[in-house]
Amino acid sequence: MEMPNPTVAVCVFPAVLANPDVVDDGSGVPYRLDLVDAGGYRRAGSWMFPFPGKGEKYVRKAEVTALAAAIDPETSWLVTETNRRKDIDVFGLIPDDFGTEPGTVQRVRDLVDSIETPPLREFLSDAFSLIPMFHNFWTCPASQNHHHDYRGGHALHSIEMAEWVAETPRLGMVDRDIGIAYALLHDVGKLWCYTEYGRKHLIASDHELVGVAKLNDALEDLQEKWPSGAVSLRSLLSGAWKSKGALPLLSVGKLVQACDQRSAEADLRPRTGHRYRPWMATPYQDNVRNFPSRQ
Questions:
Q1: What pLDDT is stored for residue 274 in this prediction?
Q2: CA 7 from chain center: how many Å?
Q3: Rounded Cα distance, 11 and 52, in Å
Q4: Which CATH number fits the domain 91-268, given the four candidates 1.10.1140, 1.10.150, 1.10.3210, 1.20.58?
Q5: Could you report the per-residue pLDDT of 174-187, keeping only the tens digit for each?
Q6: What is the pLDDT of residues 216-268, one digit of tens each?
Q7: How far apart are CA 174 and CA 115, in angstroms?
Q8: Domain boundaries in the chain?
Q9: Torsional sign, CA 272, 274, 279, 280
Q10: From 2.150.10, 2.40.50, 2.60.40, 3.40.50, which CATH number describes the 11-84 domain?
């Protein structure tokens, strides 16, 4: 009987479980799956089929027990146990290279870490645990033929807005926290309305309302922990704050709206010939008079 190798340590770590598969390669390990974290994808084998259900809304965050085992040339881990945990912070599990530009994912982590309200950070973790958010937030365009209308434009636009909100002077802590979350999620409905490859049937719907519907479960959890914050975000994300009588949210909404316009124009200005390129005044140049220097 072959004895276990005592030099092989058992590791316990958080990961997203993805891409399950059944194999018949004679290895004695019938299942394969990907373990996903900030470092990327690691192929693993298991004796347990890791996905008992289908049609889930959220990625499978779990505490994984595994040991190093060269099962085949592409598989170097053997998973012995998975303990699914909704409370794991998803931002440590999003691969660093998901963004179309270096540092994109880290910029989101920094923004979320700067939020001082714990339930709001947990809400954002829940939001980014939605399967389309986890995967497509980073690649979807911000529009089809306007600003940031290219692969990854949605993330770059939203992050830029959130960073400007975070840097706004004399902004109260609550407004700042809610403003960052709102900026990151203000166009999230577009992930379901269209993708980098074109429009979907939901484009006929209002993307703001689509976004609120998709975030409803996360907003319900936030409601239990911080009712005022949940009401604020529902009003902002749905666009209801723009209606008469929404004065308590007007300053946050107007601030993010201004950042939205600023980011859009900054993207369009250098794009010569674009039909939506905003007009800008030419720089002043005094090339006629030569003023004598003062002695």
A1: 56
A2: 39
A3: 23
A4: 1.10.3210
A5: 999 999 999 999 98
A6: 999 999 999 999 999 999 999 988 877 765 455 557 888 888 877 777 777 66
A7: 9
A8: 11-84, 91-268
A9: negative
A10: 2.40.50
Which tokens belong to 239?
A: 């666009």
Using CA atoms, how far apart are residues 120 and 114, in angstroms rounded to an integer? 11
- For the residues of the chain, what is the DSSP string, one character each? -PPP-TT--EEEEEEEEEEEEE--SSSS--EEEEEEETTEEEEEEESS-S----S-SB-EEEEEEEEEEEEETTEEEEEEEEEE-TTS-GGGTS-GGGSSSTTHHHHHHHHHHH---HHHHHHHHHHHHBHHHHHHTTT--S-SSSTT-STTHHHHHHHHHHHHHHT-TT--HHHHHHHHHHHHHTTTTHHHHEETTEE-GGGGS-HHHHHHHHTHHHHHHHHHH-HHHHHHHHHHHHTGGGSTT-HHHHHHHHHHHHHHHHHHHHHHTTSTT-TTPPP-PPPP---S--PPPP-
| Residue of 257, 188, 255 lying closest to 216 (CA atoms) | 188
pLDDT band at 213 (very low <50, low <70, confident <90, very high): very high
